[in-house]
Q: What sequence folds into this?
């Protein structure tokens, strides 16, 4: 058993009642006083349910509309293409796309998911099927100068309430990116109690084009925004510094990507207790500069891994495209000094931490929700983590909150 918060336990037992874990210990320590029912899972490794802190499920079926070759799109060309595609899609297409992505999750071993949603009518249009615990992060794009009109704030608050009922975890906000939001929008969020306390995620320091726009006031993103009549209003500097100057860097902020960070901006994120989600396949797809993972870890930033959408993933995506072990493998191929222990933490406990959900999920500890996955395994406790991350495991049982959700059990 890999509890994540402590080393592998051989011949382990997990005791749960209802939705929660009561105890995790070596079976030899428990069996003398145990009187309840026992299920022997045999030669298997059991680890916490996986947590994906960044997806855009509504784009799942858009994957076919993009060439999956690495480097096929410059970042701004990709943005332009997805904006055009989105304007042509009906709400029905988005609904099918979202559902197909959501239904893939159990087999991928994901039991908790944070999904960024831009198409709010989906909250009414979809009867959500069975799937992992969902935290909906509602995208907010606001580029007009001046204060955000109150009626727009009210509409957003209404959507958040709908998203609270739609997902199993309180909904949050996703002010999209520095180039699609204004300091006024971030101030508005702080000014409203109903918005201020919610989880916030933002695509930050993702591409060279973004950096060029903010530090040099030029480049392809600048031209593209200009063609849409948009001027960025943050001022000039690194997006992380500009965010800090405008009080948008706050503890608990979830920064997606962070591909273009230098030592100073890493320190700034660390000081402000910002969490980071790295998406290794999306990173490779766009040929971004190397993600400064070692600098981030050294500075004490909590780094998790996410899948991003299937529209920004190198092909072939495989038959379980949302399986987070794909991300681990892409990461470990590029960053040779990442240990299997750390890689597994990035898709469990670290992902729970950046979402502010680590009291509930992310490890196998007493009091947390009984979420776990299993796969057949003959390895020793010393080699199990390395063995695990060397493949894309086929989970033969996925349990969430004590209930079996998926079983491909075979002896
Ligand atoms: Zn994204």
A:
């Amino acid at each position: 058993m890999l509890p994540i918060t402590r080393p592998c336990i051989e011949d382990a037992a997990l005791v749960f009642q209802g939705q929660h874990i009561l105890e995790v210990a070596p079976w030899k320590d428990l069996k003398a006083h145990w009187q309840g029912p026992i299920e022997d899972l045999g030669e298997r490794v059991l680890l916490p349910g996986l947590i994906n802190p960044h997806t855009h499920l509504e784009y799942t079926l858009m994957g076919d509309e993009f060439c999956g070759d690495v480097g096929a799109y410059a970042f701004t060309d990709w943005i332009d293409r997805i904006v055009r595609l989105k304007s042509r899609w009906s709400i029905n297409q988005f609904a099918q796309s979202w559902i197909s992505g959501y239904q893939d999750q159990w087999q991928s071993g994901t039991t908790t998911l944070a999904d960024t949603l831009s198409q709010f009518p989906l909250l009414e249009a979809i009867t959500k099927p069975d799937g992992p615990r969902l935290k909906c992060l509602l995208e907010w794009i606001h580029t007009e100068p001046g204060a955000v009109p109150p009626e727009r704030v009210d509409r957003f608050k209404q959507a958040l309430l709908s998203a609270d009922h739609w997902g199993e975890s309180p909904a949050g906000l996703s002010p999209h990116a520095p180039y699609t939001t204004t300091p006024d929008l971030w101030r508005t969020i702080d000014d409203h109690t109903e918005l201020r306390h919610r989880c916030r995620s933002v695509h930050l320091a993702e591409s060279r084009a973004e950096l060029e726009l903010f530090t040099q006031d030029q480049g392809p993103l600048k031209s593209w925004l200009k063609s849409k009549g948009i001027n960025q209003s943050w001022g000039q500097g690194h997006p992380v510094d500009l965010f800090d100057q405008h009080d948008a860097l706050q503890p608990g902020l979830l920064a997606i990507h962070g591909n273009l960070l230098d030592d100073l901006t890493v320190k700034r994120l660390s000081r402000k207790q910002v969490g980071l989600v790295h998406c290794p396949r999306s990173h490779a797809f766009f040929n971004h500069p190397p993600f400064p993972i070692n600098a981030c870890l050294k500075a004490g930033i909590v780094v998790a891994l996410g899948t991003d959408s299937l529209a920004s993933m190198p092909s072939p995506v495989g038959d379980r495209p949302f399986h987070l072990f794909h991300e681990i493998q892409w990461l470990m191929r590029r960053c040779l000094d990442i240990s299997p222990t750390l890689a597994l933490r990035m898709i469990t406990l670290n992902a729970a931490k950046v979402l502010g959900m680590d009291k509930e999920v992310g490890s196998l500890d007493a009091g947390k929700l009984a979420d776990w996955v299993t796969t057949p395994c003959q390895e020793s406790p010393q080699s199990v983590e390395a063995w695990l991350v060397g493949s894309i495991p086929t989970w033969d049982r996925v349990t969430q909150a004590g209930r079996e959700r998926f079983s491909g059990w075979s002896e």
